[in-house]
Amino acid sequence: MPFPLPRPHILRAAVALAFLGGAHAALAAPVAAVHEAAQGQKQGMLDTMRDLVNIESGSKDVEGVERIAALIGDRLKALGGKVDIIKPTDIFRLDDTPEHVGPMVHAEFKGNGQKKIMLIAHMDTVYRNGMLRDQPFRIDGERAYGLGIADDKHGVATILHTLALLQKMDFKDYGVITVLINGDEEISSPGARDTITRLGADQDAVFSFEGGGTEPRLTLATSGIGAAYLNVQGKTSHAGARPEGGVNALYELAHQLLQLDKLSKPEEGLKLNWTVAQAGTNRNVIPGQATAQADARALKVSDFDALSRTLQERVQKKLLPDSKVTVKFEVRRPPLEATPASRALANHGVAIYKELDLPMKVIDRASGGGTDAAFAALKARGPVIEGMGLSGFGAHSNDAEYIQINSIVPRLYLAARMIMDISQDKAPLK
């Protein structure tokens, strides 16, 4: 039997273990001061989510997005951040991009250390103006409901109250914490994508505060989202009296769709599915124009590049030589790919959650969706982790979108501890 340590030695050993960091160290119990500070933010965070939900901010409601941006900017200033409201000027025009898009809120918090950490979320929603009147913020048991609360106003609130927690603890061991709140995420971030990529390239770690799912998880990989637009220009003519005088765009479209039908590679995560088609105006007129759209998904950026080239090559083979066929491919979101660094940092997060005696999954294989974190990862030198937000459900669903209130304290604890451990070289970044 080992010789027992005297009680003072045991106490000193316990204290040393409690503050021992490192890539593989896991605490037996939560750090009391951080956990207490997280509990102290719970009611304030519920109030913040209420305030955010009560401002309607659909992606195309630029005035609404500007109002919520002003509120968020004021909150960040009150926490000591240097804040800018950025109106996008270099807009990546997609097929459905409106003329004007909402702003971004950019803030920086200067500390005394070296590490650079970026926190991102979005403040726009998919909902139409006026819907709030019938679906206000409400709490029912352990759920808080509201339009956009799960996607992603809770993420904004989590960032604000993580910063408040760190301020309460007078923690400033980081170098710079950068906050970027996007105003056009739900329409594929045409105005924010370049800024996210540029800022993400200079970070030691990036955390995205989309929801963490109904069960605790962190996400390291998401599918890229692409779209293909096929256009056929033919020539109209009377379908009964002189069909030979026309060039049937519908026939050419059918030919093109058949020869573009087998481009998916499901075993590699590449999917192309034609989902929308339109042709013709009248039953007795040879259609002079036809169009189709496809949804594309990929796990690697290179797969989208190859798919775009293949589409351009294939459409050169036409059924009707006199028709004109064009195809446009756009990457709406690149895929987020798991890396050794992101896996290591996520596993550190799992160990932090174990301090609270809570399980957490790490999702490192893409299953769909898309994320602004993928734009941050395009040129990132450090790990990028998605799903740092609260547990919840019902994104994009009327009167059914909620967050789980009991996830507030654990997620604030996780976010704060990740920032603290990175700042003090206690978390793996490679």
Mean pLDDT: 92
**Order of SSEs, N→C?**
HHHHEEEEEHEHEEEEHEEEHEHEHEEEH
> What share of residues is helical?
25-40%
Identify the overall geometry.
Answer: elongated
Number of helices: 11
Strand content: 15-25%
By DSSP, the count of extended strands is: 18
Strand-pairing-aware structural class: alpha+beta
Characterize the biggest β-sheet.
Answer: 6 strands, mixed
User: Uncertain runs with pLDDT below 50, 5 residues or more?
Assistant: 1-28
Distance between the termini: 40 Å
What does this entry look like structurally?
It is elongated and about 85 Å long. Helix content is 33%, strand content 21%. The chain is an alpha+beta fold and 430 residues long. The protein has a six-stranded mixed beta sheet with strand order 1-2-6-3-7-16, sandwiched between helices. The chain has a four-stranded antiparallel beta sheet with strand order 4-5-18-17. It has a four-stranded antiparallel beta sheet with strand order 11-13-9-14, with helices on one face. The longest helix is centred in the middle third of the chain and has 20 residues, at 149-168. Helix 2 (32-40) packs across helix 11 (408-423), helix 3 (42-53) crosses helix 5 (149-168) and helix 5 (149-168) packs across helix 11 (408-423).
